[in-house]
């Protein structure tokens, strides 16, 4: 069995795509209408994708508090400066639970916690 994608319902497709492309650095793989009020986009250039679904008739999105998506970055310090420069608050961190990893959290436009991780 192979993991294909993780899906997130989003409030605004354009705002979410901007976040995941400009902040996280993912590339848009495909974007299409899935009915009169629904749009779907897939991001990522590897085997595993992020799927964003936007339903214009329902922008009530609840991602909860017990899930986060982690993305590897070259430098936590540089990434913290980058996101702050884009007006995005650091939600928590940085943390370094051992000498091999350092990370911090931000929140995407839909309330999903994003963990930005430096493998040292």
From TrEMBL:
Keywords: Lyase. Residues 2-119 form the VOC domain. It comes from the Bacteria. GO terms for molecular function: lyase activity. Transmembrane segments: none annotated. Gene3D superfamilies: 2,3-Dihydroxybiphenyl 1,2-Dioxygenase, domain 1. InterPro entries: Fosfomycin_Res_Enzymes, Glyas_Bleomycin-R_OHBP_Dase, Glyas_Fos-R_dOase_dom, VOC_core. Pfam families: Glyoxalase (PF00903). This is Lactoylglutathione lyase.
